[in-house]
Amino acid sequence: FSLSLFLSTSPSFTMPAQKKGENKPRREKKPQNTVISRDHTIHLHRRLHRITFKTKAPRAVREVKKFAEQQMKTSDVRIDAKLNQFLWSKGVRNVPFRVRVRLSRKRSDDDEAGEEMYTYVSHVPCVNYKG
């Protein structure tokens, strides 16, 4: 038997056409100027794949900052000293595969700062990252 015959006789599964004017209800966007705190696990191993040995730890710090900027929608990201120590704990080459962080969006006290909010990234020690 031929494959084309089989495909032509199989029932077609098409979605019903959506009528004009019927839009799906969208989730309401939360304002970006609220103070909030969330925990995340950052998979550094995939972000540092094929990166030169001597630039791995500095790149890990930049990747954590980039992740926090994307999640919290603030350009001002500050990293805790304990998190920096953890990222550098195994040396410049052997960065930990994963890191659990707490992202806290806080109000900026500086009047000169361009933004009213900044993100503070701190380390959350944990034994098992899975689950």
How does this structure look, described?
27% of the residues lie in helices and 21% in strands. The chain has 131 residues and is an alpha+beta fold. Strands 1-3-4-2 form a four-stranded mixed β-sheet. The radius of gyration is 23 Å and the shape is extended. The mean pLDDT is 89.
Short description:
The protein is an alpha+beta fold and 131 residues long.
Given as residue ranges, the uncertain stretches (5+ residues, pLDDT < 50) are none
Strand order of the largest sheet: 1-3-4-2
Apparent shape = extended
Helix tally equals 4
Sheet/helix structural class: alpha+beta
What percent strand?
15-25%
Query: How much is the average pLDDT?
Result: 89
Q: Give the biggest sheet.
A: 4 strands, mixed
Percentage of residues in helical conformation:
25-40%
Number of DSSP-assigned strands: 4
Note the run of SSEs as H and E: HEHHEHEE
Radius of gyration: 23 Å
In whole angstroms, the N-to-C terminal distance is 48 Å
Q: Could you state the oligomeric state of the chains shown?
A: single chain
Output the keywords:
alpha+beta; four-stranded mixed β-sheet; 131 residues
Q: Layout of helices and strands, plus pairs?
A:
Blueprint: H1 3-9, E1 36-43, H2 44-47, H3 56-72, E2 77-79, H4 81-87, E3 98-107, E4 117-123
Parallel strand pairs: 2-4
Antiparallel strand pairs: 1-3, 3-4
